[in-house]
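Hi there,

I know you've been waiting on this one. I reran it after we fixed the sequence typo, so this is the corrected version. Both the input and the resulting structure follow.
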Amino acid sequence: MTGWQQSLPRSGAPSWRALAGAFHAGAPPLLFGLRLAASVCLALYLAFWLELDAPGWAGTSAAMVCQPQLGASLRKGWFRMLGTIVGAVVAVAITAAFPQDRTGFLILLALWGGACALAATLLRNFAAYAAGLAALTTAVIVSDQLGATGGPNGDAFMLAVTRMTEVCLGIASAGVILAATDLGAARRGLATTVAGLIADIGGGFAEALGRAGADLPDSRPVRREFMRRVIALDPAIDQAIGESAALRNRSLTLQAMLAGGVTALGGWRAAALRLVGQAEAAPILAAFPPALRTAFASPGQQPRLHDPARLDAEARAAARALADYPARSPSERLLADQTAKTLGGLADMLNGLALLEGARGRAPLGRGAWRFQVPDWHPALVNAGRAILTILAAQLLWIVTAWPQGAVAIIWAAVPAILFAPRADQAFAGAVDYMLGNVVAVTGAAVVGFMLLPALSSFPAFGLALAVYLVPVGAVLASGWRPSVAMGMVASFVPFLSPTNAMAYNIAGFLNNAVALFVGCGIAMLAFRLWPPPPVAHQAARLLGLSLRDLRALAAAPQRWTASAWTARLYARIAALPDQAAPLGRARLLVAHDLGEQILRLHGEILDAGRCASLGTALAAIAGGRSAAAVACLAELDRALVADGPAALQARAAILAISEALTDHAAYIDDGAVS
């Protein structure tokens, strides 16, 4: 037997296993690349058949809405359509408002770009994308009707109708291909993630109750990681909504599920301070229904949430029972209340999980915790101002140089200036990656357009030529490698290829458009360097400072606030805190939320006029940043409430929670310190 025959039994099987593993890992990205190519080809075929004047926009829209997840693609398509319609309407309105005034026309265009950048920063997920696209659509329509030095030519309405038709055609084409070839897994994946998160939070909290005592380990790092996972559910919820009309109609239940996770962790945080004696924790743990204790696996184990609707009902029943628990001390009352709060948050998560698994799900109570709030205007205003200056700079360059491709440069300057601005510290890096992706796209369009297409005469051959580029690029996009690079590789290929029914091979025009792209992107990158977004640390400090300001305002006038309004304000701040921020920042925001909640509860409990005056003195001290004085006043109020017996335990529990928060976080409450 020869040497290679002897080695075959030892190396052949592992090689086949490695090959099978590589195929298994590479098949989904390649399959998405085929979907991307098919979507673009279908959009271009229909645009050619309808003899649209710029079929490339149909192909570009199909490429842009294609995402590796079906729900994300459909959701992005709807919002792209919305942004396109709004942008087209604004383009017509601007043209009508300044038919003969070039200066006013261009200034209003820049202001509209700034307004869209502001909205893109304030909104989240695909709604932010729609806001940015509204500005880009307006810029595209405007660039098609302007001359060499600017000034509308009166064709805005027909251009708007044509561009909207092309974009909607591309979105519909991508939706048909993706829906026909992908069953969608966002809903199932979100359900799995939520089930694991519920089991981890519930199991961790139950374990903490069971191990209460002096040797209880510090759970703060675990809770902070759980908080990060809860906030990360937001984009996953958006994707799941995109796959299902039923989920879209009950989206408030899913938003309440996210808010429930924050509530549960807030209750766990406050309860952890009480878990110092097994005597207090044991009867509270006994209030857990057996089904819940069985379902809540220990953190990291496989969750066993087979009937979330039933577990939701049992969690709510347990929370109501704990609300009536016959506590014997303020500490025990506070532990029971915070355990009830944790169970209530878990119940909201279980209700959302039941909806994801096909059950009807109960309607959420109110909208306070998930209604729209502006956490901080500062980053949005900075991004808006930068977008305005970027567009004005591109316009000025165009007018001064009388460059025929200057209108195109405005579009390419607006794209990174608006779409990457919400990324804070990563905005400049994202713009650089986007430029690199554009280099690949321009190179690919040159190869396909000037080397492959001239030798082809049929649409199937044309489609294969596009697939040579789009399939591997789609695989790169699906793999998650350098998303901004992949975005540039996908978004700019079809516009530079400029496919038409009768292909025109204009090398000079191609090069001029490429120069316009690089000049426009260069202006945007320079703007990010000269006027960078607020650093993450600065954003975190502002969110903490604004929350402290609101907390002091609540302490000064609690009658002006409701619990739902306060919860909505602080949840928005918690969600807006950048992922790169220090974990302590999110913990401080949760403390501020819980402190405000307890102040409102105590204010509602104290009805006696004399004790209201004592409470007012304590709250005035909190409003003035004097936590030590506030703790002393609250201690005096607590001593006065002792005479009321069990009837005052609720108020005394709130006093205990407030006093401990003020003592443990005095540096933040008094001076706004975040460390």
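Quick highlight: Confidence is low (pLDDT under 50) at residues 1-13.

Best,
R. S.
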